[in-house]
Amino acid sequence: MKKVIFMGTPAFSRTVLQGLIDSQAYEIMAVVTQPDRPVGRKRVITPSPVKELAQAYGIPVLQPEKLAGSDQAKTIIEMKPDLIITAAFGQFLPKSILNAPKYGAINVHASLLPKYRGGAPIHYAIWKGEKETGISLIYMTPKMDAGNILAQASLPILDRDDVADVFAKMADLGRDLLLKTLPSVFAGTNQAWPQNEAEATFSPNISKEEEEIQWNQTAIEIDRHVRAFRPFPSTFTRLKGQRFKIWAGRPITGDFPQGQVGQIVASTEDQLIVQAGQNTYFAIEEVQPNGKKRMPVKQYLNGMADHELVNQVFEMSSGHEG
After folding, report:
1. Helices (H), 119-211
2. Is 154 part of any known ligand binding site?
3. Which positions does UniProt annotate for (6S)-5,6,7,8-tetrahydrofolate binding (predicted)?
4. Which one of 21, 263, 291, 312 has the fewest CB atoms closer than 10 angstroms to its CB?
5. Which among 167, 136, 168 has a CA at the least distance from the CA of 153?
6. Is residue 317 a known part of a binding site?
7. Residue 234 among known ligand-binding residues
8. Do 217 and 322 meet the contact criterion of CB atoms below 8 Å apart?
9. DSSP designation for 211
10. How far apart are the first and last CA of the chain?
11. How does pLDDT run across 258-298, given as a tens digit for each residue?
């Protein structure tokens, strides 16, 4: 039985790890995951989904704040694994660890490389309007997501998919592709191929500034932005100087008044119609006012007269490009 060390953190990683455990073909020597972090409005210290799964099966867990140069790195090397598998781990692996396993280190990456290298490939694929994404299994190298590709599988992005939808489907796809490919890795028969560097694009971790909706974009672009950031990290705008989260909406056509970008030009029982760029309209359907819970627009509008919102303008930070 081949000895594997698994490194991962979110629910995506948990699905991949569960597949390895269920296969009963590999000995999971240890799981390496990010330290417990505060979660939610109450900032409760919470273990990662991968840690919870590992503990349920009695698998040893290592949680270095920074892997390079740590005691945990020495422990991993001393374990002499046959293979290291990473899936959304969230840290770079030092050369000493990459060189430790007999069969190398493999990453389950959530894009069709060389497109969208980096930490937010699923977010970017939706945000940029891709019609498909997929999983790439690659040999890890010191350069981010640049190693030779062992296998790929594609997945369509549906019109109303958000990042949670695609994450769930991609986790299943990554698990299945990994389990299908591993036998050829250990047998030495896998025909990995190099990436085309000229076609490489990047998906860096999402910044706080990028969460803000830019109303001068078209309604289609705003819709992609909202879905790409739902449920995490979410999108927001500003109303009367207060943060105002937008959880759901869609492009809409109709005979609406024309206003300035970001202006609420009309409302219905369950939608706020906002002027977007290039004479398009975006219908907001679910919101979260500052200090309140997420709610449908219908609930938000209860007890509020139309004139309190119609013609109000959502503000944008000056100088921020969408």
Report:
1. 121-127, 163-187
2. no
3. 111-114
4. 291
5. 136
6. no
7. no
8. yes
9. G
10. 51
11. 999 999 999 999 999 999 999 999 999 999 999 999 999 99
What token pair was written down for 170?
């991609």
What does the domain layout of the chain look like in residue ranges? 2-199, 210-308
Tokens representing residue 64 in the block: 């270095």
Name the CA radius of gyration of the chain, rounded: 23
Could you give the CA distance from residue 62 to residue 46 in angstroms, rounded to a whole number? 15
Q: Which CATH superfamily is domain 210-308 in?
A: Formyl transferase, C-terminal domain (3.10.25.10)
- Are the CB atoms for 140 and 165 separated by under 8 Å? no
- Of the options 1.10.340.30, 3.40.50.170, 3.40.50.2300, 2.60.40.10, the CATH number for the domain spanning 2-199: 3.40.50.170
Distance, CA of 256 to chain centre = 35
Backbone angles phi, psi at 83, to 5 degrees: -150, 145
How many percent of the chain have pLDDT more than 90?
Answer: 92
The tens digit of pLDDT for each residue in 164-197 reads 999 999 999 999 999 999 999 999 999 999 999 9
Name beta bridge partners: 134: 154
